[in-house]
Design a protein that fits this description.
Layout lengths: L10 H55 L2 E2 L8 E2 L1 E5 L12 E8 L2 E7 L9 E7 L5 E4 L4 E2 L9 E2 L9 E8 L9 E8 L15
Antiparallel strand pairs: 1-3, 2-7, 3-4, 4-5, 5-6, 7-10, 8-9, 10-11
Length: 205
Amino acid sequence: MNLRGEGGYSMVELLVVMAILGVVVGGITTLFARGINADAQQTARFQSQQDLRVAMDRMRREIHAACTISAPGTYNTAVSSVTLYFPSDSCNSGSHSVTWCTSGSAGAYSLYRIVSTSCTGATQMFADYLTAASIFTYLPPNSHLGTLNGGAGAITTQDNSSVLPRLHVDMTISRGTRNAHPYRVWDDIAFRNGPRGCGTGVASC
């Protein structure tokens, strides 16, 4: 038997083929990993946006039904917690009072809701990864907001506009450095059961 006639691969050839195969498989794996990460980030962004929309819709309905907040004297100032009073409690503190608040630190805050006059014990979370804690600004009746996106600095009080009191809500969600697409919603929501003006010389009520 003549062994010299049998074909085969040398060790060098096998190593070259394995190296090429490793590069190809590594590239394919990287593409798959990037695709999976992109899909996960897209899902997270969609969920964040959906959370904000649901929270804002719930707040709109409750603020429209409310008369005022627990501390109307703190107006034109962004705060992290707000308690709503309703006609069912004669527009005062009562069993139907609802508190919306944020909790967290270092640019990662959560939005909570609780049927209570304070945020203590709140467990119903509506949104996460908020970039700021102070998202509520009470605008007193008979005042004017120059521009919806202007923030508290654009508010002029007691300008005889006879408008209802409102709550300016401004929320932005960002899930960190990987998610470079923060999502923001804001609105100027009227208390439909609130007064259109306060007493003489009273700035807010």
